[in-house]
Amino acid sequence: MRALPWNRARTLAAELATPPPPENVPIGDAAGRVLAEPLRALVAVPGFDNAAMDGYAVRGAGPWRLTGRVLAGCPDPGALAERTAVEIATGAPVPAGADRVVPYEEANREGGLVAIRADAGRAWVRDHIRRRGEDAEPGDELLPAGSLVTPVVLGMAGSVGADTVSVVPRPRARVLLTGDEIVRAGLPGPGQVRDALGPLLPPLLAGFGADVTGVSVVGDASAAALTAALAATTEEIAVVCGASSVGPVDHLHAALAGLVATVHVNGVACRPGRPQVLAHRPDRGTDTGWIVGLPGNPYAALVAAYTLLAPLVAGLTGRGLPGLPTVAVSGQARPVPGLTRLVPVRWDDSGAVVVPRDGAGYLGAAAQADALAVIEPDWTPHAPARLILQC
Ligand SMILES: Nc1nc2c(c(=O)[nH]1)N[C@H]1C(S)=C(S)[C@@H](COP(=O)(O)OP(=O)(O)OC[C@H]3O[C@@H](n4cnc5c(N)ncnc54)[C@H](O)[C@@H]3O)O[C@H]1N2
Ligand code: MOO
């Protein structure tokens, strides 16, 4: 199978996966989830005409005779008669018949009378009343399905009366590290390599919107061990790290053949990260059974995670592929004919600047970066490039 262009691989991963049936969760537990259905207002906001300022609610021409006080939480403020006023607090319901609220700063109160101050100018002409339903009416669609539930969305959901929201279940992922040389703790001995991907992938996937249930190591001894580990995976996504290339113990392709998996992506025309794989188990629906092969080289694995894993999670959560912002990039990005390069960049006043020394085998440059720039073959220094923001 021919290596796919980077853009195509990315969009394909998002298009192929579909979300599972939604679930209702309390708004307190919904942060970071994705709306499965549009968020609609259950009540009007504001729920009643209320004062936008502390002052006096008045009716008709002034001066006004002061007849009482209305505080926030008052269930029934009554009605105002012509040429009368009530003292009113911000957020309190405005009595029926009131024309406006005069803020304290613009009012004179003497004895039982309230009048506009002589020096109030025209500021008092504003009515300082927030009208029922001016922000939302019951049934209004406030956000479409596919929206990320941010803290702000939750605050708004509370404002419109929601106790629960309908969201997409978070996909789960199991990470399978391959390689007899990999050690997961302590200092590596001769010929050994300390694992970089076990620490990287769970929080990276959490940022994409998926939960890693476990990280385990599969030895290089035979393809059967990797086939068995993949067959035993019940999570929606199995992430295989390493074993994606053509080496003598690179067993991923043999394992996929053993599972009769459908291989949708086998190689991406990007550098680093070319030997990456997206496959699907034929016995599963498109909301589960996904297998993603990441190259063993850690920076190549990071690039592949942004290329295939993040879009796959976007598809599984119904979020869709996010657009990539475009900014001017300077520095040595070294475009390659026929390939998309992904290079770590940092912000500076002029845009984004390439962080030097971005080898496939080490995360040092990416660790200093704010984003990865997508460098196409026709890029020239200071030209714009799309960015993947690091999460
Ligand atoms: N003849 C060819 N050889 C290679 C090609 C090719 O096209 N033809 N592609 C090269 C590229 S590009 C990459 S990337 C690697 C990908 O190899 P694998 O995905 O099969 O990964 P491994 O061989 O298992 O390991 C590669 C490298 O990464 C280290 N590694 C593996 N896992 C981890 C980990 N969890 N933490 C840190 N480092 C890890 C491993 O020790 C190796 O050094 O293939 C090239 N070869
Ligand atoms: O493309 Mo490999 O993924 O250079 O390290």
From TrEMBL:
Q: Which InterPro entries match?
A: MoaB/Mog-like_dom_sf, MoaB/Mog_dom, MoCF_biosynth_CS, MoeA-like, MoeA_C_domain_IV_sf, MoeA_linker/N, MoeA_linker/N_sf
Give, as one word, the top-level EC class.
transferase
Q: Required cofactors, per record?
A: Mg(2+)
Origin organism of this chain?
Rugosimonospora africana
CDD domains from the entry?
A: MoeA
Any idea what job this protein has? Catalyzes the insertion of molybdate into adenylated molybdopterin with the concomitant release of AMP.
Gene Ontology cellular component terms for the protein in this record: cytosol
Annotated MoaB/Mog domain ranges read: 174-315
What are the recorded Gene Ontology BP terms?
Answer: Mo-molybdopterin cofactor biosynthetic process
Domain of life of the source: Bacteria
**Is Protein biosynthesis set as a keyword in this record?**
no
Q: In which pathway does it act?
A: Cofactor biosynthesis; molybdopterin biosynthesis
Catalytic activity field: adenylyl-molybdopterin + molybdate = Mo-molybdopterin + AMP + H(+)
Q: What is this protein called?
A: Molybdopterin molybdenumtransferase
